[in-house]
Prior knowledge:
The chain is mainly α. The chain is about 55% helix and about 5% strand. It has two domains: about 1-205, no CATH class; about 215-270, 2-Layer Sandwich (Alpha-Beta Plaits). The chain is built from 15 helices and four strands. The protein has a two-stranded antiparallel ribbon. The longest helix has 28 residues, at about 1-30. The radius of gyration is 20 Å and the shape is globular.
Amino acid sequence: xxxxxxxxxxxxxxxxxxxxxxxxxxxxxxxxxxxxxxxxxxxxxxxxxxxxxxxxxxxxxxxxxxxxxxxxxxxxxxxxxxxxxxxxxxxxxxxxxxxxxxxxxxxxxxxxxxxxxxxxxxxxxxxxxxxxxxxxxxxxxxxxxxxxxxxxxxxxxxxxxxxxxxxxxxxxxxxxxxxxxxxxxxxxxxxxxxxxxxxxxxxxxxxxxxxxxxxxxxxxxxxxxxxxxxxxxxxxxxxxxxxxxxxxxxxxxxxxxxxxxxxxxxxxxxxxxxxxxxxxxx
Length: 282
């Protein structure tokens, strides 16, 4: 039952990410207003908040025409934290497709796939975020947008659309997959420890308790003295949801439901607001 529930959640997340990519492809084919940092129709668009910050710093301007578009996404991050990373980011889809457990065909959680080697400290992604913003200001263009896995994935899809239309392959069909492979497959800790977009979304949602995992101590095997770490081992971000109010939980949790689906006793749940059931979770 646990394996079935976990596979169902992964299937839903895979479908959600695939649907988003399909929308991007259709938008590109329909010539809607879009770019690697934004998507919309006419004056109505949504924009990556990190892309907006880079453009603003590069141009030394608040760029009010884009402020509302980025603000909408920023507000969603304030309410939902890094949910984008768990349910919408195409980088996660690429990692899911290529990271398979050879023994049973299941996706390998990052907490297990990244064992071995030197563990990067939590502040690494925030250092990368600071360097991203500083370099955009210094060089006068959005530096990270040139290598952002999200933007590169969309750019690759646009290139494929152009290839279908013009029958003329471009060099980007070689360069973009190579860069993505380095970021997501060679740099295995990219999403967890290096991605500045994930760091920014985590900072914006650092006070959000919406859909955070809550552990019921009355059901938790570990709380009763058993050696159970199923929820921590399943977390793609390497978080132990039993830490309760820990900073890593609130800033790094992607609300992916892996811990909920894996717990053998159903001790982990995702109430709408974690604090609403705090009495049971403590």
